[in-house]
Amino acid sequence: MFYVYVLKSENDEHYIGYSADLRRRLAEHNMGRNVSTRGRMWSLVYYEAYASEGQARAREHVLKGHGRTKQALLKRLAED
Fold first, then answer.
1. What's the pTM?
2. Is the dihedral of CA 19, 21, 27, 28 positive or negative?
3. Of 2, 12, 31, 74, which sits most exposed with the smallest number of CB within 10 A?
4. Along the 80 residues of the chain, how does pLDDT read in single tens digits?
5. Rounded to the nearest 5°, which phi and psi values hold at 13?
6. Domains, the chain, ranges and CATH?
C-alpha cells in the first residue's frame, strides 16, 4: 500500500506527501530529515490509501498542484 498524507504543524501549517510507510515518514519529518518541514513538529491529520505508487503520486500531484482541490480538503479537515 501507498499513502497520500496531510500533516499539520503546531502553528497550523499543512504539508502533503506520499509514502509506503506512514509511521517512518512522520518520524522523518519530525526529526528534521525533510527540508520543507524542518524545525517544526508535525502530526498526521489525514491519509488516503492506494494500491500502487503511481496512484498515490498522481493524487499527491493533484492535491499539491490544484488549489481548489487542496483548499476543499483542508476546509473539510478544519471542520472535523
1. 0.90
2. negative
3. 12
4. 999 999 999 988 999 999 999 999 999 999 989 888 999 999 999 999 999 999 999 999 999 987 889 899 989 988 86
5. -85, 155
6. 2-79 (3.40.1440.10)
